[in-house]
């Protein structure tokens, strides 16, 4: 739910952010020193605030969000406002990738559409902005960040990624069996096997893929000998065992941080996990 003030704020932010996103290609190539990577905020404004405070404490200088800002949680409009204002203030240091919820065929069905049911102009303007979001980011020429996965086409290269034809990158998942397998998510959506992911990384001179899109009880699931990291940064309910995760990338190291949702708020775990980039 969001009030009129938040919606007016969104309306203004949409106007200001559109030209910034339009200028960005489907694949952006940021060179960053210390980067927070988070994903699937899904309308959870409180979790976003918590993650941003954590990132500030860790002194990151840049942010990559892997899409799915809206739906599921109660505060899609406030989440968009916060992230859009960060981007407007510091466009080179904040990357907002597109997720499968930021598409007009999905965003019309869930909580975000419900929030804006009496504001069709703001809803349409949001979808027009979503269409301009980049699809992937190649961090420091090494890590491919994307919401879903690679497309799974033959001899696929980064150049194939376009804003107009992005469905595979927003919807696909990594798989544990080799090859291209159909997905329960729907027709034209695939699970990409470790053989294809390894080949893709080699062919495109990349070392790792970080993606979102799928929730895991552990917050993170590693595929393909730790060359593909599947992250999820929010939690649908309070649970002592389920956790969410964010990553901080610095030079050749990816550090994974986990938090749990408790009755009183959020708690970061002391345990972290380090992954090294390697060819
Ligand atoms: Mn998704």
Automatic annotation (TrEMBL):
Residues 97-102 form the Serine/threonine specific protein phosphatases domain. One of its GO terms (molecular function) is hydrolase activity. Gene3D superfamilies: 3.60.21.10. Pfam families: Metallophos (PF00149). PROSITE patterns: SER_THR_PHOSPHATASE. CDD domains: MPP_PPP_family. PANTHER family: SERINE/THREONINE PROTEIN PHOSPHATASE (PTHR11668), SERINE_THREONINE-PROTEIN PHOSPHATASE (PTHR11668:SF496). This is Calcineurin-like phosphoesterase family protein. It comes from Methanimicrococcus blatticola.
């Amino acid at each position: 739910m969001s009030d009129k003030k938040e919606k007016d704020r969104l309306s203004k932010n949409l106007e200001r952010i559109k030209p910034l996103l339009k200028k960005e290609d489907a694949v952006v190539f940021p060179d960053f020193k210390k980067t927070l990577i988070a994903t699937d905020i899904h309308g959870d404004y409180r979790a976003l605030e918590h993650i941003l405070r954590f990132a500030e404490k860790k002194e990151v200088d840049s942010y990559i969000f892997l899409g799915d800002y809206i739906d599921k949680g109660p505060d899609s409009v406030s989440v968009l406002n916060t992230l859009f204002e960060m981007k407007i203030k510091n466009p080179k240091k904040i990357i907002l990738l597109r997720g499968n919820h930021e598409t007009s065929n999905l965003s019309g069905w869930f909580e975000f559409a419900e929030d804006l049911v009496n504001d069709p102009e703001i809803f349409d303007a949001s979808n027009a902005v979503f269409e301009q979001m980049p699809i992937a980011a190649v961090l420091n020429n090494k890590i491919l960040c994307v919401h879903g996965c690679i497309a799974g086409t033959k001899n696929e290269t980064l150049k194939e990624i376009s804003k107009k034809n992005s469905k595979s990158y927003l919807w696909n998942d990594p798989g544990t069996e080799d090859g291209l397998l159909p997905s329960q998510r729907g027709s034209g959506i695939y699970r990409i096997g470790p053989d294809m992911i390894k080949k893709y990384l080699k062919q495109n001179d990349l070392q790792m893929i970080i993606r979102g899109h799928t929730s895991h009880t552990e917050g993170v699931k590693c595929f393909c000998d730790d060359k593909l990291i599947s992250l999820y940064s929010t939690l649908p309910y309070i649970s002592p065992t389920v956790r969410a995760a964010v990553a901080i990338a610095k030079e050749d190291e990816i550090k994974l941080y986990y938090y749990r949702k408790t009755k009183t708020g959020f708690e970061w775990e002391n345990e972290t996990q380090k992954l090294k980039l390697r060819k």
